[in-house]
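Feature request, filed as a ticket because there's no other form

It would be nice if the structure record came with a short human-readable summary line next to the tokens. Right now we just get the raw output. Example of a typical job, pasted below so the devs can see what we mean:
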Amino acid sequence: MSRSLGLTAEARSAVFAPLAGPGRSEQVEQRMREAIVLGLVGHGERLPRETELARQFGVAVSTVREALDALRSQGLVRTTRGRDGGSFITSSEEGQRELLAAQLSRFSRAQLHDLALQLGAISGTVAATAAARATSSDLANLRSITQSIDFDNEVSARRGEALFRVEVAAAAQSPRLVAEELRLQAEFGPLLWFGMRDQALRDTVRRAQLSLIEALGSRDAAGARALVDEQLSTLAASAISFSDRSRGSADDVDVAPVTLDDCASLVVDTVDAVFTTLGRARDAFATTLARLAHPITRAALDGSVRALAEAELADGAQLVIGAGFVATPGFVADAAWHLAWWVRQAGDPLVQRLPPRQLAVVEDPESEFFRDYTRLEWWRGVASGEPSHITGPYVDYLCTDEFILTLTMPVFDSSGAQPGVAGVDVTVSALEARFLPVFGRLGERVTLVNAQSRVVLSTDPTLAAGTLLAEGGERVPCGALPLALLRH
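Raw output as currently delivered:
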């Protein structure tokens, strides 16, 4: 096997490196699946003994044993007894493809675009640095890798692209960049490269590799970074298109055509339903608040909000990821600032069965990590007198680390004072799942934007959530909401 398609020691060591924090069998299982998908362990290969795997991952032997049991149940590993026995990889190329498809289906468009952006931040810096540091022998090595890849074969092209990126990182002469490139590839790379089932895309990847080598040889750091960004954007769009086709084939039924007005009505009905549920919870909380003994403590406030917040999460039809009440500064007797907020534990299938968790944030204004939430739009919108407000899309780094919209309503007490704000967080990923199957029936490019023309979601797989669009195109308002559909 050529060097370019061999199993590099660096790549294997990244996948089998010790786990960070307390090791779980699910983490070991995920690492092993990644190794199989990346081709770092091939069909028929014998794995190290359980004791050796436990040593490499830094976990107990029982943890490795549980992970191997799970992989056996998925048909990825078989175990035989005897002197020549052991655990062997049983995943074929088709099996790896199915595994990738299953992984891909769990990512939304917004997540895939963001993944390409994250990879681009590392790979673009890698390429720009390599343009300043690569030697003639580094360039010769990259050319030999590209020449040895069989771009007529999907698996060869996918694995060759993986190694090509690692070797570019090595040419950048940065151990940290190599380690990060390997980590991102092992965790997410195959999802983007899955689109290389298409011959035209494989040809595009080959041209991109050759162009990047030329840019490195010319010491063109800006050009090298631009090439990487363009290629990752193309790969992300291809992966999204494949995911869309897969979902479409699964739901291949006769459906009535829709109009742009129908799509706008769907947006209005969906958002209004969330606001209706939020309004009922807000009113119920105001009633409960009137019965609480004063001065109101943090514990008493949390106790009165929790059941209502958890009910909103349960009734949110998978749209709502967070819900609760945010107190006006000084309202709670034993905390100057307080959020009584609960978050759905989702995203990782291993924790979806757990109950919502209460959000823990720094509420001490003297701390350097304190954030004044009264300066945020979702607070200011209703504090200024609006009966309801939609904020976003934005990255919720204080709470969910998701791309979300926040819907808020003011809470008033019997005297007319505003003790705080009630709200819910709705993920863009959930809105994609709700809207895009219907929007796609228009058969044309249509994009949902906010009042600032920031993209919420789009039928165009190349258009990432969060992008600012220039004015233009046919715009259909979504009722009185600060949202509109743009045909462009």
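Something like this underneath would help us a lot:
The CA atoms of residues 122 and 180 lie 7 Å apart.
Residues 260-291 form the longest helix (32 residues).
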